[in-house]
Amino acid sequence: MNKIRRATVLAGAGFLACASLPGHSALPETYVSPWKTPWDYEGARGADHWSELDPAYAPCNEGREQSPIDIRDAQPTDLPDLRFVFRDAPLRYVTNNGHTIRVNYPAGNGNLLLVEGRRYELLQFHFHRPSEHTVSGTRYDMEAHLMYRTTEGQVAGVNVFIKSGQSNPTIERVWQHMPPTEGQNHVAGVDLDPGGLLPRDPHGYYSYPGSLTAPPCTEAAMFVLKNPVEATTEQIAAFARLYPHDVRAVQPLYGRVVRESR
Ligand SMILES: [Zn+2]
């Protein structure tokens, strides 16, 4: 891990130089909602109605490979290692999108997930409280979602459980700049390593065909890390004051097999 951290710092220094060039970042300077059609977790625009709100949301209630799920009876399999590349780089914006706290990444950010011959790049990460996935019915305090995409448009989610314990420095830095209401805060002079959202040993994982857990519920390869990370009760409470329950119900498996790395 130390070696990876050192490599990460060097890469970050290069990124800092590039980021100072005008026009490098594709991130919008003013807040833009990620959704053209508003939705909620409950009520008339709630999860039972997402498909009715916008044709683009059709997979939400019609798809048969939706997330989250309750993970149980996973099939032990020789799964490939998830290979991660993370870069410690300037944090530009922290977004409150009305449903969660999110950090977006511009194209070419160099944070990668390499698995099954595919090269995914980090698009954004965000949080849910409590966890959306459950393991044999057990829910964790929170869950971080790192969302990735290949240049061909294939989406993958790396889902990390969060339990109360030690302070998480990456979460702390994001929380220090999170807007209390929908919008985005501009940040200056703060470096952030998204790799700080991963457990020390990120190798054990569950894998299944799933989806984004919010509209448009796009189908995606889902990886759920077995080892959780920790955050303090204060860090968890700070998120809960904004979003006490940003969670979609667990979805039927419809015959899907959940695999588990040996
Ligand atoms: Zn999510």
Give the topology.
Layout: H1 2-19, H2 50-53, H3 59-62, E1 70-71, E2 75-77, E3 83-85, E4 89-90, E5 93-96, E6 101-104, E7 112-115, E8 118-128, E9 134-135, E10 138-139, E11 142-149, E12 155-164, H4 169-175, E13 183-186, E14 191-192, E15 205-211, E16 219-225, E17 229-231, H5 233-242, E18 259-261
The structure holds zinc ion (ZN).
Going by CATH, the homologous superfamily would be Alpha carbonic anhydrase
Number of helical elements: 5
Largest sheet: 13 strands, mixed
CATH class: Alpha Beta
State the distance separating the first and last CA atoms: 21 Å
Q: If classified by CATH, what would the architecture be?
A: Roll
CATH topology (fold) name: Carbonic Anhydrase II
What binds here, in terms of ligands, is: zinc ion
Helix and strand pattern: HHHEEEEEEEEEEEEHEEEEEHE
| Average pLDDT rating | 91
Sum up the overall morphology in one term: globular
Low-pLDDT regions: 1-24
Secondary-structure content class: alpha+beta
The overall strand count is 18
Strand residue percentage: 25-35%
Percent in helix: 10-25%
Describe the structure.
The protein has 262 residues and is α+β, with helices and mostly antiparallel strands. The chain has a single domain, classed as Roll (Carbonic Anhydrase II). It is built from five helices and 18 strands. Strands 2, 3, 5, 6, 7, 8, 11, 12, 13, 15, 16, 17 and 18 form a 13-stranded mixed beta sheet that branches. Residues 126, 128, 145, 213 line the site of zinc ion.
